User: Which sequence fits this backbone?
């Protein structure tokens, strides 16, 4: 599996693969204890390889390590959380 890179200056986690970028974006107001994962995107050519799940798992692990309250306005992230992710 390719590595997930956290780009906090852009509020996102990314996977670069085959010249394409998959991403999980989030909103975290400075000084807030809440983080909102708002969008997951995987280019069509890279779908069905588990990249979205890898991004979400990494993002959720980061948020939990930081002690943030997690909100998911992205339906995919919400589904992962509801399944126990």
Assistant:
């Amino acid at each position: 599996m390719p590595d997930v890179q956290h780009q906090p200056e852009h509020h996102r986690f990314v996977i670069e693969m085959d010249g394409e970028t998959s991403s999980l974006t989030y909103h975290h107001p400075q000084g807030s204890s809440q983080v909102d994962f708002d969008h997951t995107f995987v280019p069509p050519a890279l779908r069905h390889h588990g990249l979205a799940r890898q991004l979400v798992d990494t993002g959720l692990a980061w948020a939990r390590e930081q002690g943030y309250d997690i909100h998911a306005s992205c339906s995919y992230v919400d589904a992962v959380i509801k399944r126990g992710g």
